[in-house]
Amino acid sequence: MVISSLADRVVRSVENVGDTVSEALFEPVIRLGVTGLARSGKTVFITSLVANLLDRGRMPGLVAAQEGRIEAAYLQPQPDDTVPRFDYETHLGALTGPSPHWPDSTRAISELRLSLRVRPTGLLSGLQGPRTVHLDIVDYPGEWLLDLALLDRSFGDWSRETLERIADRRCAADYMSALAGIDAEAAHDEPLAQSLAQSFAAYLNAARDTGYYDCTPGRFLLPGDLAGSPVLTFAPLPVQGSSVRRSLHREMERRFEAYKAQVVKPFFRDHFSRIDRQVVLVDTLGAISKGPKAVEDMRHALADILKSFRPGRNAWLTSLLMGKRVEKILFAATKADHLHHLQHPQLTGIMEALTRDARDRAQFAGAETAALSLAALRATTEEMHTHNGQELPCVRGTLLETGKQAALYPGALPDDPAHLLKPARDGAEGWLDGDYQAMAFAPAALTLKTGDGPPHIRLDRAAQFLFGDRL
Ligand SMILES: Nc1nc2c(ncn2[C@@H]2O[C@H](COP(=O)(O)OP(=O)(O)OP(=O)(O)O)[C@@H](O)[C@H]2O)c(=O)[nH]1
Ligand SMILES: [Mg+2]
């Protein structure tokens, strides 16, 4: 009885509402944020996800697809006029064309709207025809989330912390020597400011290429149309106390504040605050193959990234969100096709452990979280090899560098993630049990059956967790 009167009320209210409300009711919008550090696999993930939602033959793990309730999927013009469109067709062409290659690096925000016509289940199934659900996918660099930490730092604090952290890094040597003999309280001199900012930006780029993840301010790495503007022409200085009028210190401080107000805040206000569901992509295998330092560094970066999803600590963000929060966060170890599936549980275990602190806190803030390992575009096949009487689970693919076929055994990932994370925390130079091999494979040439999207690993499970409940 309760159910039928509830349903009546739904029908009645539906008849009475105006267009906007009925659109909100019948055409819900899910904003899915896709982020991760540079090269973590964002572009390939979105491209393959969209292709596999358009052609759903390989998406049995997405319940609505499995039940045949998705009647149609189509791309639409996106709702935000000022955000570049995610260049789906070009990226898909790169991955699935006659000479497949990985898409170019993107490093800026972009967006795509995919609309799904879905037959409802349960209570409403008898009352309603298919409804449209819009999936707005937003691709943005994880580095931009790291900038949140700048908001509650003064220029002086930020300078001190940054210089302390980078002083011993080889890639920072040029910048540190450029600072030698600088009097921050001397009169501001624009050529000097520019050369310091350029040198600092060069350091940030080198640091990122070396495998450091704490590369903020994030926009220094992808200036876009802000290149050369004052908001990007500052750098950390050896300063003490408050700044002297008209000094280099005062001007850098002003620009640091402008960066926060005009670059960092607008991103959080216009994009981040509107996200409903979030996937954080992590190239866990890549970091493991670079060694313990890279793993530890990545763990820190992830914890920092995740602070944005637990905004309690940041008064400005808390007031901006006004209680709204990301409902679900998925942590996904990408490129799992570099491993035989026998090793996937270990990879997921490492992913879980890497984000444990951060996950606990996000859960604390009410978001549902999960970890899994996936490959957005599977570039390998699996095979067993016998080596010294031992069976080794390998993957085979075309090497990116040589174009030759090769079988790879990357090394045994430990069952207990602590065997990797502990030495990383303790600052070990190398892994005890020898190295983990990373090899870059080229995307395989594909002949797709009608109705099938590109091959992947667990992309359907990721989709089910992220938005399956809304279909
Ligand atoms: N084997 C394999 N390699 C992948 C997969 N996804 C990404 N890669 C590799 O990772 C690289 C980076 O992937 P992208 O999707 O461009 O990563 P991104 O996060 O968009 O990178 P930026 O735009 O530079 O920040 C690719 O060029 C591939 O070499 C995958 O599913 N399988
Ligand atoms: Mg990209």
Topology:
Layout: H1 2-16, H2 19-26, E1 29-36, H3 42-54, H4 63-66, E2 70-76, H5 88-96, E3 110-118, E4 131-139, H6 143-146, H7 148-151, H8 155-166, H9 173-179, H10 190-210, H11 248-270, E5 277-282, H12 284-290, H13 292-307, H14 315-321, E6 328-333, H15 344-354, H16 356-364, E7 368-373, E8 381-387, E9 390-398, E10 405-408, H17 418-425, H18 459-467
Parallel strand pairs: 1-4, 1-5, 5-6, 6-7
Antiparallel strand pairs: 2-3, 3-4, 8-9, 9-10
The chain binds guanosine-5'-triphosphate and magnesium ion (MG).
What does this protein structure show overall?
With 471 residues, the protein is α/β, with parallel strands linked by helices. It contains 18 helices and ten strands. The strands form two sheets. The chain has a seven-stranded mixed β-sheet with strand order 2-3-4-1-5-6-7, sandwiched between helices. The protein has a three-stranded antiparallel β-sheet with strand order 8-9-10, with no helix packed on it. Helix 3 packs across helix 5, helix 13 runs parallel beside helix 16 and helix 15 packs across helix 16. It starts with a helix and ends with a helix. 38% of the residues are buried. It binds guanosine-5'-triphosphate (GTP) and magnesium ion (MG). The site of magnesium ion has 4 residues, from helix 3.
